[in-house]
Amino acid sequence: MRADNIQALRTTQPPRRGLSEAEAANYIGMSRSFLRQARMDGERLNRTPGPPFSKIGRKVLYLRDDLDTWLEEHRHAS
């Protein structure tokens, strides 16, 4: 397969639903350490809870829909 055909396939594929920790942190504008801490601590008093996540074996994934919902839930009007 030619390189331009491979590039065309890459650009026509829909975005992945599951994001890695680094991709999720970038997507929501928070640090990876925030996501790690939120996963380990769960919900704590006076702390912003982290977004929902899935774990498959050792791999942690965040779904785009869950991240969008989490962002909307933590939105404040000024």
Question: Mind explaining what this structure looks like?
Answer:
This protein is of the alpha+beta class. It has one domain. 49% of the residues lie in helices and 13% in strands. It has 4 helices and 3 strands; from the N terminus they run H-E-H-H-E-E-H. Strands 1-3-2 form a 3-stranded antiparallel β-sheet. Strand 2 and strand 3 form a beta hairpin. The longest helix is centred in the N-terminal third of the chain and has 10 residues. The protein is globular. The mean pLDDT is 85.
Primary descriptors:
4 helices, single chain, 78 residues, 3-stranded antiparallel sheet
Question: Which helices and strands occur, and which strands form pairs?
Answer:
Blueprint: H1 3-12, E1 18-19, H2 21-28, H3 32-41, E2 54-56, E3 59-63, H4 64-73
Antiparallel strand pairs: 1-3, 2-3
Which percent bin holds the helix content? 40-55%
Biggest sheet strand line-up: 1-3-2
Give the mean pLDDT. 85
How large is the count of helical segments? Answer: 4
- Count of the separate structural domains: 1
Characterize the main sheet. Answer: 3 strands, antiparallel
Could you list the spans in which at least 5 consecutive residues all have pLDDT below 50? none
What pattern of helices and strands is seen along the backbone? HEHHEEH
Distance between the termini: 54 Å
List the quaternary state of the chains. single chain
Please identify the structural class as seen in this structure: alpha+beta
Rg computed from alpha carbons, rounded to a whole number of angstroms? 16 Å
Number of strands: 3
> What is the overall silhouette?
globular
